Amino acid sequence: MQQWEYCELRLDISGTVMIRQSVRFYQAKGPSREIIVPSRDQAIAELGLAGWEMVGVAGSLMQDGGGLSLFFKRPLTPSNEESDHTGTNPG
After folding, report:
1. Taking a C-beta distance cutoff of 8 angstroms, is the pair 37, 23 a contact?
2. Domain boundaries, the chain
3. What are the pLDDT tens digits along the chain (91 aa)?
4. 60: which DSSP letter?
5. Of 30, 47, 61, 77, which has the most beta carbons under 10 Å away?
6. How far is CA 11 from CA 7, 41, 54, 75, 85, in A?
7. Cα 33–34–37 angle (5° rounding)?
8. Residues 17, 33: Cα–Cα separation, whole Å
9. Quick one: 61 exposed, middle or buried, by C-beta within 10 A (0-12, 13-18, 19+)?
10. pTM reported for the whole predicted model
11. Which of 79, 57, 80, 74 is nearest to 5 (CA)?
12. DSSP letters spanning 40-59
């Protein structure tokens, strides 16, 4: 059976300004790991190059702020199970 690993690109917004962007890597064994990223576009491109596929979007945008989450998955393999999860450094 195919197993997957997942991550989330989180975009926090206050008013009309992006205030924080991060990637959280979810792990079945141990705590998730979060990396602050300076560029949404670069993070998406680097995740794609590392084999991550976007599978969902969730969030809310209101006048006083909100956020958006982009969810990604890729097949779990022995090589990426032990890696830094990106294959590159999205930041």
Report:
1. yes
2. 4-81
3. 999 999 999 999 887 788 899 999 999 888 999 999 999 999 999 999 999 999 999 988 776 678 999 999 999 988 776 665 554 444 4
4. E
5. 47
6. 13, 11, 15, 24, 19
7. 150
8. 25
9. exposed
10. 0.81
11. 74
12. HHHHHHHHHHTT-EEEEEEE
The distance from CA 15 to its chain's CA centroid, rounded to whole angstroms, is 22
Q: Which helix (H) or strand (E) holds 6?
A: strand 4-14
Cα(35)–Cα(89) distance, integer angstroms? 9
Tokens read off for 71: 């969810």
Q: Three-class SS of residue 61?
A: strand
CA 39 vs CA 9, 10, 35: distances in Å? 11, 12, 12
pLDDT single digits (tens) 2-21: 999 999 999 998 877 888 99
Is the CB of residue 33 less than 8 Å from the CB of residue 89? no
